[in-house]
Amino acid sequence: MNIHEYQAKSILSDFAVPVPRGRLATTTEAAVDGCRELGGSVWVVKAQIHAGGRGKAGGVKVCRSPEAVAEAAGALLGHRLVTHQTGSEGKVVNKLYIEEGLEIAHEYYLSLLIDREQGKPAFVVSPRGGTDIEQVAAEEPAAIRSFAVDDTQTVDDTTARAIADFLTVPSDMRPLLQSLLDAFNQRDAALIELNPLVACGDGRLVALDAKMAIDDNALYRQPEMAKLRDLAEEDPREVEAAAYGLNYIALDGTIGCMVNGAGLAMATMDIIQRKGAKPANFLDVGGGVTVESATEGFKLLLADRHVRAVLVNIFGGIVRCDIIANGLLAAQKIVQSQVPVVMRLVGTHEEEGQAIIRDAGIDVRWATTLDEAATMVVAAHP
Ligand code: GDP
Ligand code: MN
């Protein structure tokens, strides 16, 4: 689960990570009030969306007067911001974070994530902060280094010094690194990324930008974190699917997929690509599927204007084919879609499932194998 920059900074601040002072604003007036409360003469108006690359896209504005803050706020609020991370549709800016402007001497990159090979948290750092870390990785991989945390979950002096040396930071970084590690562990984070972490003119290290993601699987024991979810930032189709216990991820192709099991869903997406088309989604209905949730899944696919054909690939084990069939039936009663549907419906209760579709007179093209189904759906899609 991703959270906003202002939320991440509030959490980090609880762990004594230095962050700029800031005020949240959802109106131009509140933005101006915020800058007056903060005082000083330079402010930064930052669009709060769940995507990076805001700086280059005009979503981070350095302002030198309250009038300039008002102008920046007016230009951002309610408008779509397109960054290289939002996709071409962009994201509507509903919230702004107004911060005191800082004098920056150097920008570093510092993140904390799980190194899966070592099974430990690791700091990933680079002296080339402020730019896209993906670009640094491509152009100058030696400028990025990873430092694993030992099992005591304490940052020892040797590691702290090695990180500081690599970044050429003169001060002792251990307290900052330990604070980040504590925040990471105690809030069940999957990622903390400071890009940039800056050295100010006076040498102070401050988290100028902060991105934080919380491990979804830990939300049950992190109720305070779960409250930070901003549904406006998430794909409405994914939010809806999650409410029905479906594993759904929207993609940019044209073939809707309804599959049981994550592995089978991935194989289905692969074979669609192999046949020359692209999947519109990943959808694993899971073992606990009910007629209601299957209906919701079909509604999502059939009502999606990007979807030009649907492939149902059910290999019924725990999942019963008649449940899937009744789901399609119920969804078609509501959506009445003309989108061609290719069905491979085999396994538990397969005869019942196929009979339900046939008896209802729903137009479905039947396939026996996955290969055949994929060929048919690609041919069926206009
Ligand atoms: P991102 O582009 O979405 O990652 O947004 P960031 O928060 O990283 O801001 C982008 C850039 O804006 C930073 O790398 C800084 O160069 C600049 N910036 C942000 N805040 C300040 C500030 O307080 N003072 C100055 N001078 N520049 C800032
Ligand atoms: Mn950034």
| Rg computed from alpha carbons, rounded to a whole number of angstroms | 25 Å
Provide the low-confidence segments as ranges. Answer: none
Task: Determine the fraction of residues in helical runs and give it as a percent range.
Answer: 25-40%
State the secondary-structure class. Answer: alpha+beta
List each distinct ligand once: guanosine-5'-diphosphate, manganese (II) ion
- Name the quaternary structure: single chain
Distance between the termini: 36 Å
Molecular structure report:
With 382 residues, the chain is an alpha+beta fold. The protein folds into three domains: 1-20 and 103-234, ATP-grasp fold, B domain (D-amino Acid Aminotransferase, Chain A, domain 1), CATH 3.30.470; 21-101, ATP-grasp fold, A domain (Dna Ligase, domain 1), CATH 3.30.1490.20; 235-380, Rossmann fold, CATH 3.40.50.261. It contains 13 helices and 19 strands. The strands form five sheets. Strands 1, 8, 9, 10, 11, 12 and 13 form a seven-stranded antiparallel beta sheet that branches. A hairpin with a 4-residue loop joins strand 8 and strand 9 (120-126). Helix 2 (28-38) runs antiparallel to helix 3 and helix 11 packs parallel to helix 12. It is elongated. It starts with a strand and ends with a helix. The structure holds guanosine-5'-diphosphate and manganese (II) ion. Manganese (II) ion binds next to loops.
